[in-house]
Amino acid sequence: MKKIVPILVAVTLLASLFTIGCPPPRAEEAPPATITIIDSAGRLVEIPQPVERIAVASSGAAQIIRALGATDRIVGITRHMATTRAYFWPYLKDKPQIGTGHRPEHEQILAVEPQIFITMSRWGGARRGSGETGTRGY
Length: 138
Description:
By secondary structure, the protein is α/β, with parallel strands linked by helices. It is built from 5 helices and 5 strands; from the N terminus they run H-E-E-E-H-E-H-H-E-H.
């Protein structure tokens, strides 16, 4: 019994040292309602969070979305992705078409109601024309 008491005291002291140094658990912080990015035209743009609906006019951007595991969020694709490269995008081929990467059809983009529209910056027509209907290309 005399040997057990010092061991219990030592274990209790060690346990209290470990718990004293631990900070209290933090409350879960709510994710931000928006994030701010700089788009390809150099503009600051607020993106709603979470992004649930994406129109994509770039197969490169679609590849990134696929790598992120978010292809279920794509609501519109280019004709090229739906026809010429359908073998590469079999799970997207039935999505609505929104024109081409070089000539996006703004009415079709608006019809799929995306939260964001992603295109390539080198395709100036997509960026220039996007202001006409209120869509924004990123």
